[in-house]
Amino acid sequence: MRALTDALIITKRQLLQLARVPEVLIFSTIQPVMFVLLFRYVFGGSINTGQPGGYVQLLMPGIFVQTTAFTLAATASGLAEDMTKGLIDRFRSLPISRSALVFGRTLGDGLLNVVVLFVMGIAGFLVGWRPTSGPVKIGLAFIFLLAFGYALSWVGIFAGLSARDYRVVQNVSFLITFPLTFLSNAFAPTTGMPRALQYVAEWNPVSTMVAACRELFGLKNQFGATAGSFPSEHPLPMSLIYMVLILLVFVPLSVRKYTHAAKK
Amino acid sequence: MKAIIADHLVKTYRNGEVRALDNLSLDVAEGTVLSVLGPNGAGKTTVVRILTTLLTPDSGSASVGGIDVIKHPDKVREIIGLSGQYAAVDETLTGMDNLVMFGRLYHLGKKAAILRADELLERFSLTDSARRPIKTYSGGMRRRLDLAASLIVQPKVLFLDEPTTGLDPRGRQEMWGVIEELVKGGVTLLLTTQYLDEADQLADDIAVIDHGKVIARGTSDALKTQVGGERLEVVVDQQHVGATMEIVSRVSGQKASLDEGLRLISAPVTTGAGALIEVLRSLDTAGIHPLDVGLKRPSLDDVFMSLTGHAAEDEVKELDTGKRSGRKSKKDKKVKGANA
Prior knowledge:
heterodimer, A: 11 helices, about 75% helix, about 0% strand, B: alpha/beta, Alpha-Beta Plaits, 2 domains, four-stranded antiparallel beta sheet, 12 helices, Nod_factor_ABC_transporter (chain A)
């Protein structure tokens, strides 16, 4: 109980930061909206999906997943900055539970994702995205996305605590998440990729997430299920397995890292 | 009763290559102030990090307020306050936000946290800036806020790691004032510093450390005595140097030494002001008018030099304007004092 209230205080800190510097929230939603517009109107016209409603139906789930994956960078750099500036030391010298800080931080990131996904959903609707599966499945898809974002923010925590300098972290996380989201079925079918790449793309958790979301939004998963690989055939259970694996590895690693954290 | 005990602490880095602490032992009696004095890299921060439960030593033991820091770090955290070398506060939040957040983390209720924050802001003259983000604060204000954050639950034992490093002379003076107030309130304080005058000013007791070991321990006076007593110094015109040398040597009982460039004649004395009067009288009789005359007590700089063989700030790597100007102003003062 104590640990939970401590964590919530940390979460509140993050919300206060957003209230004090609202630009952060504005820009972290503008970027994905920009992606929506670029893909929808620049590439969308040339990609024939054979899907009723066109490319935007396939694009939006991809953008949703990409957006949740990109928040990893913000988590990592935020934590690395706390570390460099000695805040982590202060938190560690307080009589609070060891997991409160990292746990609170991931909750805050989760809330941030709620806001960003909401804005993205509206942006998608405005450019013609129309999920057809009904409210329950649509709701499930968003819960799925939030869970994925939550799991990834633990990776961000670990990266942030391991970093030597917060200015490096953002770039490094971007270098990892950018190819990870493009080397997938998010924006183009995997069938057009060289064979080897196709396997990588289909085993990529981003792909299974995108495919799972497409299913939940009522689409036939056209960009997957081509190489006949297991993950592209079973995107929903595979995505769940990935999330559990990420949490199983990175929660203990992050808490351990925090406990032994030393200011660089 | 000892509020802090460190017993044969050893901490090595890079697989034993770097010995940050080498069997370091120290203790601080309740309600007193110990200054841990040493150059950069001497191990000051490592000691503080171990005592505040942030770091585990390779061997040795330590206790704070009678509680073992290795076995019961949680209990230690409840009675300590720590203010480090950097202002460890959230820069995007306001001063008020920060103090309320830390208050809540110290398990104060919402109202109590706000009340306490108000109190501390008032006490550290930050009320006017309470609603501004820390980003807009001066270095001195940040440090004061950082210190305020470490005082939220009135810690029994307070650790200040280089509280004035990087501050300009004014910021330093303000910080000293604040620390002196705290000490009057009876807190046990361990303060690290690389400024000898700071140790002199604030601490009851000084532990000089170098290469991870305590190389001297005692009051400022005791340390100075260890280096040697007072010296009598006279500056005269070139033509009187010879005669003055004789007079000073006679009063001192030891041969006076001469700095030819400054025409400064000096010798150790044991009778203090008496010796000064005697020398002045003899000079007057001889018709010599000294340009400057005085008794010089050894400074902690001299202590450090004689203990370690190098000056205290030899190892300061960073260019830090705050530090430089701080030192300079102190030297200026010394010169003025000698002329007065």
